[in-house]
Amino acid sequence: MLFRTYTILRFLVTFSRYYDIRAIRVSYIFNNFSKMLGDRLSKLTTIRCMIINDPFKLLTIVTSVIIFTVAFSIRVIEGPLILIDNDGLDLSIPSNCIWLTLLTMTTVGYGDYYPKTNVGRAICVISSVIGSVLISFIIVALTNSLNFSDFEFRVRLYFKRHSNILKKIILSKK
User: To the nearest 10°, the Cα dihedral for 110, 2, 8, 98?
Assistant: First the structure.
C-alpha cells in the first residue's frame, strides 16, 4: 500500500506541467545564462511550483491519499482483533477506520474508536503529527489567498482615505 501511495504521488509530480519537456528545456536555457538559478529542474522545484500556484488542489490530493493510506493501515492492523475481542470497536469496517483517521488527524479524538495494538497506536500518533502539519499548510494557503495584491491594497487605501468624500457625493445625489 505504501508503494501505491508513493506511486500516486510520484505520478502527480512527474506528469505535472512544471516537469514536462518544455519546462526542462527552459531550465537548461536559464542554467546556461545564469548559475544563480541552481542546478537543473528537480522534482523538489516542481513540488514548490505546485504549492505556490495550486495549493488547494495539491493539499486536497495529498490529504486524501494520506487519509486513505492511514485508514487502510489501521484496518489491516486492527481489523483482525474483532475476532478475538468483540467489544463494539469494529475497525474491520473501512468507514470506521476513515472516521478514526479523520478524528486523529484533526486532533479531535472523540474516543468512540481507538486502536488497541501498539502498532495501531503508533500509526495514529504519526497521523496526528501529519494532520497537524497539513492543517497548518491549509491555514497558510488560505491566508496567502486572502492577501491583497499591490493594486488591491492601493485601491483599498484610496477608498479608506476618501471615504468621507465618497459618502458626501453619494448623499448629495439623493
Answer: -20
**In this structure, CATH architecture of domain 55-147:** Orthogonal Bundle (1.10)
Give the pLDDT score at 31.
60
- Single out the residue of 119, 116, 73, 81 nearest to residue 97, CA to CA: 73
d(CA 64, CA 54): 16
* CB-CB neighbours of 72 under 10 Å: 19
**Which residues make up the CATH 1.10.287.70 domain(s) of the chain?**
55-147
Type of residue numbered 128:
S
Confidence of residue 147 (pLDDT cuts 50, 70, 90): confident
Largest distance between two CA atoms of the chain: 81
Query: pTM score, two decimals?
Result: 0.70
Q: Residue 38 and residue 91: Cα distance in Å, rounded?
A: 49
In the chain, % helix, strand, coil (3-state, to 5) comes to 80, 0, 20
133-167: b (≥16 Cβ within 10 Å) or e: ebeebeeebeeeeeeeeeeeeeeeeeeeeeeeeee
